Amino acid sequence: MADKPEGQIGEQPILFLFKSMKQEHVDGSMKKGRFCFNHPSVFSGWEEKDSAQYDKWDGHGAHKLKHLYVAPYTKGETQPPPMDKWTKISDETTVHFESDAAKHTPICCFRAIRSDDLLSDKERRNAYFPLHEIADRIRNEFNHDAYILVEATPFLERMRKSVPCCYTGAVIYQDTMNEPPFSLDKGHQIIAEQIFRKDEKFAWQKEYRIALAPAEKSPVFVEIGSIEDIACCGSLIDCDYAIRIDLNR
Question: pTM of this prediction?
């Protein structure tokens, strides 16, 4: 397949997208291409704090600041307070912030699968995604019992045709994004710093996100039509196997 979606600069192209979910939603996703998009606040305000979906700073930007001081501000003042009014807070700290656009940006999350995530047989006729290596963690931390595996390129092409305003990308796992390792126009830079950045402790998820234009309410449901020709599905219950992928399709 040509023109595979990319993640960070220098990474391998993304071949497949893996989506875990409740079994009850599989049929709608496979037959109708129905996917749910939520505001970041759904994940930053997740009730179960030990869940893999809980991220206190999801949808927030972050910057490292040094020599941080604060001073009282009087409304109407046009000059900064005198030096003796400033109080030192920290020599170095991380400041998190959230824009209104990012706060209202619906997102749908997947796991990116690249060639180095796959095993192959000696004849290289088949590739295998070792699902059993992450199945327990997904069940325990996401409380999901099923999955969909879809070819990335045709899936994203259909998504963009159905939702022209969507933009996509692999999540970057670093505490701050003062210098994002990918290039975007200025209009999307602020949102990208907040939507496509997560703390390193979530790096095992290898997340890939699809984001829609800001919307006042969520969830937002998108239907792109059947994906049965480019996807497979299965159960995560008692999962001790790898998913076989025919490389000669």
Answer: 0.78
